[in-house]
Specification:
Elements lengths: L1 E5 L7 H15 L3 E5 L3 H8 L3 E4 L4 H12 L4 E5 L1 H8 L2 H4 L4 E6 L9 H13 L2 E4 L2 H6 L5 E2 L29 E5 L8 H11 L7 E5 L5 H10 L6 E5 L4 H7 L2 E4 L8 H8 L4 E4 L4 H4 L7 E2 L4 H12 L2 H18 L2 H16 L1
Helix pairs in contact: 1-2, 1-15, 3-4, 4-6, 8-9, 8-13, 11-14
Length: 351
């Protein structure tokens, strides 16, 4: 099958990583794959040598790249509204010569932006099939969607995990590391994570909070850290390309975003067997399981603090929890499973 993925972006965040990994494993399965958009170098590194990666940082640039490849494709696969707009304008799509599939990465209806409001009727008429990255996302988008859960790679060393937990994970003890890995944007609620760490009392026991990521709220988060007297215990690391290495150092992973569509960073922590404490709403209930001991009352930093403290005080319970999360990731959230389920959507449309 010949597949063209389109994302209007010059970045490499959750969506671009999703596209790159999916394209890599689709190529490994024998498909011919082109990706238009994202940070070309980083997408190319993840996707590998068998995937062509073209720039698509603007609507015009993405349209040029997509149009140059759509005529020979079987499926054009759009990611996010701007890419849907681009793909709906392609002659090959408009003439019905190529199927158009879109993945809904966020649990909301189109129309929050002016572009989305203007393009919504055209997109609804033109798209052949929608994929949602979780049941939570599918329940909150406009139109029917097939759920295809995002997948991540197993722990990168590839070695069998000791009793289900990666050997390199540092389990909670007298002092450990709590990791947050996310964009520092308002909707991610990084400040809630800092408040939870402060309220947990773990800093007084020598624990550290590492925050990997950057964004508009970096200064506000730094000010919050200072106001709480946590400068010696919290490290704002900025953007990092070595999150796998940070996960190998982590004792616990903290995900404070409410209403997350799925949460790739949570899946990556699960792959490493790191116990996860997460806001108990949205896609976190699907990734961790609705009865996971790391879920806390949504939007409540004090409840998050209690969950952190409970796992830090119970190394055996934390070890068991990490084991269960790693098993769950391998069973439900592998890239191989994502490729197979995505292929089923393509083939249904092509039939």
């Amino acid at each position: 099958m010949r597949i063209v993925h389109v994302v209007v972006s010059e970045a490499y965040a959750g969506v671009e990583s999703h596209v790159a990994r999916l394209a890599r494993d689709q190529a490994a399965a024998g498909h011919s794959v082109v990706v238009v958009g994202g940070d070309v170098g980083r997408v190319g590194t993840t996707a590998g040598p068998d995937v062509r990666v073209l720039p698509g940082g603007s609507l015009a640039q993405a349209r040029r790249g997509a149009n140059a490849n759509a005529g020979s494709a079987d499926v054009v696969h759009a990611h996010m509204t701007a890419a849907e707009v681009v793909c709906c304008s392609l002659p090959a799509v408009l003439r019905g010569h190529v199927a158009l599939v879109t993945t809904r990465h966020f649990a909301r209806r189109r129309g929050e932006s002016l572009l989305g409001r203007l393009a919504r009727p055209l997109i609804a008429r033109t798209v052949d099939a929608q994929i949602a990255i979780s049941h939570f996302t599918a329940d909150h988008v406009d139109g029917p969607a097939t759920v295809v859960r995002s997948g991540v790679d197993d722990a990168p060393d590839g070695a069998p995990a000791r009793e289900g937990v990666a050997e390199t994970v540092r389990l909670p003890g007298a002092a450990g590391v709590v990791l947050m890995a996310q964009r520092l944007e308002p909707e991610k609620r990084t400040g809630d994570g800092v408040l939870a760490f402060a309220a947990s009392g773990l800093a007084d026991r020598g624990w550290r909070l590492l925050v990997a990521g950057d964004g508009a709220e970096r200064e506000a988060v730094a000010e919050l850290v200072a106001s709480l007297g946590l400068r010696r215990s919290v490290d704002l690391l900025g953007h990092r390309s070595d999150v796998d290495q940070l996960l190998r150092q982590a004792s616990l992973f903290l995900a404070p975003t409410p209403g997350e569509g799925l949460g790739l960073s949570v899946l990556e922590a699960m792959a490493h067997g790191v116990p996860v404490v997460a806001d108990g709403s949205g896609g976190h209930r699907e990734t961790l399981g609705a009865d996971a001991p790391g879920l806390y009352a949504t939007g409540d930093p004090q409840a998050a603090a209690e969950a952190l403290r409970r796992l830090a005080d119970s190394p055996d319970a934390a070890r068991w929890y990490g084991q269960q999360l790693q098993v769950r990731q391998r069973e439900l959230f592998s890239v191989a499973r994502q490729v197979a389920d995505t292929d089923a959507v393509y083939r249904a449309v092509l039939r």
